[in-house]
């Protein structure tokens, strides 16, 4: 592949979790534009089916809960089955995009909510990486991209549980990058800042302005900008890059 290739993922497949959210949709669209066949995972069957129709035949919808261990294993069996039956290219990329965020001060925070975030933001990506790496090891090449957060690095008041899960995923990313490098699998992360998605739509205007005032670019980021970073790390344009966290935050000052 050359740096100027319009379709660096042609003939390859990518699994994207949380595909029905704003960021997930942008990642799927970017991968499609780059030539990939995309396994799009999500829980909302109606929405995922509708999106799959708009995306076209190069998207394979996978309806499952990322926190259901048995369902995840079955999903990877389905991926293998699809590849054998249809000739879809080998699993080249894995994007752990599904995420969950609750905000609450320590004094009233719930351990149940903490566990929910832990399951979605850390344990689910871990299982997905384990199963994806087994498939990628067959061709001794692949790329895993985890969506972490600038909150995981800098912290944020009222978001200690969420920050903990994302910081932990960053640690897993860096450790697995070293572990999987000998078999040709790269592991990186993208750390979005304040991005216009469903995770930030609840912000009231004054709160939004307060956050944007701390961003050098003086605006929120777009999902497409995060998707471009993910795509770069998936492709061979980042063939010598692993164990890194790429911020997409417009230079945010915590």
Automatic annotation (TrEMBL):
Name used for this protein in its record: SDR family oxidoreductase
Source organism, top-level taxon: Bacteria
Recorded family membership: Belongs to the short-chain dehydrogenases/reductases (SDR) family.
PANTHER family hit by this protein: 3-OXOACYL-[ACYL-CARRIER-PROTEIN] REDUCTASE, SHORT-CHAIN DEHYDROGENASES/REDUCTASES FAMILY MEMBER
Gene Ontology biological-process entries: fatty acid biosynthetic process
Keywords: Oxidoreductase
InterPro entries: NAD(P)-bd_dom_sf (IPR036291), Sc_DH/Rdtase_CS (IPR020904), SDR_fam (IPR002347)
Source species: Alteromonas pelagimontana
Gene Ontology MF terms in the entry: oxidoreductase activity, acting on the CH-OH group of donors, NAD or NADP as acceptor; quinone binding
Keyword Transferase part of the UniProt annotation: no
Pfam families recorded: adh_short_C2
Keyword Transmembrane helix applies: no
């Amino acid at each position: 592949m050359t740096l100027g290739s319009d379709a660096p993922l042609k003939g390859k497949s990518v699994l994207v979790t949380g595909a029905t959210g704003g960021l997930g949709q942008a990642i799927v669209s970017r991968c499609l534009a780059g030539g990939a066949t995309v396994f799009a995972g999500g829980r909302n069957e109606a929405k995922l089916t509708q999106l799959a129709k708009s995306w076209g035949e190069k998207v394979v919808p996978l309806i499952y809960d990322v926190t259901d261990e048995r369902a995840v294993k079955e999903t990877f069996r389905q991926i293998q089955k699809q590849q054998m039956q249809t000739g879809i290219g080998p699993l080249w990329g894995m994007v752990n995009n599904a995420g969950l965020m609750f905000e609450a001060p320590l004094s009233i925070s719930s351990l149940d909510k903490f566990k929910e975030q832990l399951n979605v933001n850390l344990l689910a990506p871990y299982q997905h990486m384990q199963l994806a790496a087994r498939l990628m090891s067959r061709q001794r090449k692949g790329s895993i991209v985890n969506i972490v957060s600038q909150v995981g690095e800098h912290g944020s008041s009222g978001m200690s549980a969420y920050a903990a899960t994302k910081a932990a995923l960053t640690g897993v990313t860096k450790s697995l990058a070293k572990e999987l490098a000998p078999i040709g699998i790269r592991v990186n992360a993208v750390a979005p800042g304040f991005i216009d998605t469903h995770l930030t739509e609840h912000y009231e205007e004054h709160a939004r302005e307060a956050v944007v005032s701390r961003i050098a670019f003086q605006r929120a980021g777009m999902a497409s900008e995060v998707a471009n970073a993910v795509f770069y790390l998936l492709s061979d344009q980042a063939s010598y890059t692993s164990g890194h966290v790429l911020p997409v935050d417009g230079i945010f000052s915590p």
